[in-house]
Amino acid sequence: MHLVFLGPPACGKGTQSAALVKKFGYYHLSTGDLMRKEIATDSALGKMLKKNIETGVLAASEIVNELLKKDIENNRQKSILFDGYPRKVDQAEYLDAVLKENKSTLKQVFYFDIDAEELFQRILSRITCKACEAVYNLQTNPPKEDGVCDSCGSHDLVKRGDDNEEILKNRIKSFYEETAPLREFYQKRGILTVIDARAPVEIVTEQIVNAL
Length: 212
Ligand SMILES: [Zn+2]
Description:
- The chain is of the alpha/beta class.
- The chain has a single domain (2-114, 165-211), classed as P-loop containing nucleotide triphosphate hydrolases (Rossmann fold).
- The radius of gyration is 17 Å and the shape is globular.
- The chain has helices at 13-24, 31-40, 44-55, 61-74, 89-101, 116-124, 165-179, 182-189, 201-211, and strands at residues 2-6, 27-30, 80-83, 106-113, 126-129, 135-137, 157-158, 192-196.
- Helix content is 49%, strand content 17%.
- The protein starts with a strand and ends with a helix.
- A 5-stranded parallel sheet has the order 2-3-1-4-8, sandwiched between helices. A 3-stranded antiparallel sheet has the order 6-5-7.
- The chain contains 9 helices and 8 strands.
- It binds zinc ion.
- Zinc ion (ZN) is lined by residues 129, 131-132, 134, 149, 151-152, 154.
């Protein structure tokens, strides 16, 4: 059964997604990853997306919806964990419709609760493995050995390209303006679980697993 992770940039969604994938074999559907893949193909769609991401603006719903629908259809037999989607109420409605077409439905939505100021601190200390895309945080979730990726052993740990301050301000602002209202949307449906995202990584995982 399908889950949604709702939360602002750097709230720990990525790390928790990886934990659930490992524990329960969810298919991790990250619209951020789908968009990055599309950008890598250098298609017209990819070029538009690149511009959106570089300015910190949320990508247009139609583009993201198209990528999402294709990926849901390709993975319809699996339990899907949605990460980074939906970001707005119209996307939430679109997701319902696509799932219904695929004779499926959302089971549960997790909201990662954290305030903007704490996010800023986190974001500035976030790094990604260039080789395998594992995500670390120097404050909350550092690699076991300094500068070395736990998953693949690469020494190529870098700050992500979209991590500069101005873009982040925009992304966080977008989240609280456009995405946070989804908390109420899913609460009304009775499928929302609020997670204290300020807690250490293992405690957050525990909160999620206990609520499943
Ligand atoms: Zn790695």
